[in-house]
Amino acid sequence: MPDIEGRGRYGELFRLWMKRSLAPSWSLSLLGLLALLGLADWTPGTLQASGTMTPRLARGLEREALWSIALLLVSGWTAWHGARVMGRWRDGEWSWISSRPVAAFRVWLATWAGASAGLGLLLVAVGMVVEVGAGLGAETVRLVATQEVDDARLEPGQTLEIDWQVDTPTTGTVRVFLRSSPGMDPTTDVRVEARRGKKVAHTEVRLDGRRGVEVEVPTQSSRPLIVVITDTGGGALALDGSTPMEWWCPAGYEWFGSCSVIWRAFLGLSALLGLAMGLGGRMSAASAAGLSACLLLTATTGDVGYRLPWIPLADLPAVLTIVGEGRLPMSGHLLLPLVALAVGTSAWCLAGRVR
């Protein structure tokens, strides 16, 4: 009988905290704000003037903008929401919780899981609003693999060859990021080739600043892929090593990008929620929320997402950038769910005594 009564209390806690994560005053205000922002034009004036704007890019930029705003607000809400849990318990809710035989750790799990489920439902609702504003879009390409490259400088007439060393592309395109170097001539003519044995595909562009240059991957060949970059005239050329070389393949539709954002954000916010709950047991809610926000900022700044993609939320800025191009990111790291679960549950040890 005690186990049955305890199970009923855990279920009540799960539903209670799921509802609190979906508080109408908060969730409806957020969705209404996003619906209004979806009516705006998020295309930068420079892109419109350059003539490089496409419908896919316009839809992607709107997704990126709306998701960035939504995640900024939801992250702050999550940190504050989690930081207040222990305070609520100590202010009287624990008396109600302990009116039935319960285990403190299971109470923690039920609370964390319920609040996380509410956040997940909120993210799904946000995704629906974003896609209504942006339009579901058409078929697009997905990032399949990346390869790190070193910075390099080419003078007019010089050539650089890069061997593709990860999974050999069989179809799709390879993209490399180049920029024209400051000098007498601000523009640079570039030829980028993709070679597989005797099969060669190429593209020629004129650079004025930094740009990703794509070239088709030759098919019907099993030979290794070599990317050849040639500065054919104008100013000097620089290979940007801060962004890896990328392989893209046709796969899925643009709205799949919002699904990727929802999944990563759900795992990351669940971990953030657990961390804030744990810190809230050791300090004031405001301090716990602030410290959680600082840790979130650290995880999402710089190249952490490239170096440590298994950290929840670390790769989300890069994912949003890809979604902003109307493309699809790579699948999330396999360890992401396990790390999020580990953070959410182990934060119990950080919280200290509940009552």
Written description of the protein model:
This protein has helices spanning 2-21, 24-37, 45-50, 55-83, 85-97, 104-134, 256-280, 285-299, 304-307, 316-324, 336-351; strands at residues 139-147, 152-154, 159-163, 173-180, 188-196, 199-207, 210-216, 226-234, 237-239, 245-253. The chain is of the alpha+beta class and 355 residues long. The chain folds into 2 domains: 2-138 and 254-351, no CATH class; 142-247, Galactose-binding domain-like (Jelly Rolls, Sandwich), CATH 2.60.120.260. A hairpin with a 2-residue loop joins strand 5 and strand 6 (199-207).
List the helices and strands and how they pair.
Layout: H1 2-21, H2 24-37, H3 45-50, H4 55-83, H5 85-97, H6 104-134, E1 139-147, E2 152-154, E3 159-163, E4 173-180, E5 188-196, E6 199-207, E7 210-216, E8 226-234, E9 237-239, E10 245-253, H7 256-280, H8 285-299, H9 304-307, H10 316-324, H11 336-351
Antiparallel strand pairs: 1-10, 2-9, 3-8, 4-7, 4-9, 4-10, 5-6, 5-8
In DSSP terms (H or I, runs of 4 or more residues), the helix count works out at: 11
What is the oligomeric state here?
single chain
**Total beta strands:** 10
Quickly count the domains.
2
Low-pLDDT regions: none
Summarize the main sheet.
Answer: 6 strands, antiparallel
H/E element sequence = HHHHHHEEEEEEEEEEHHHHH
Overall morphology: elongated
Helix content bin: 40-55%
Structure class: alpha+beta
Give the averaged pLDDT, no decimals: 86
Alpha-carbon distance between the two ends = 24 Å
CA-atom Rg in angstroms: 25 Å
Strand content: 15-25%
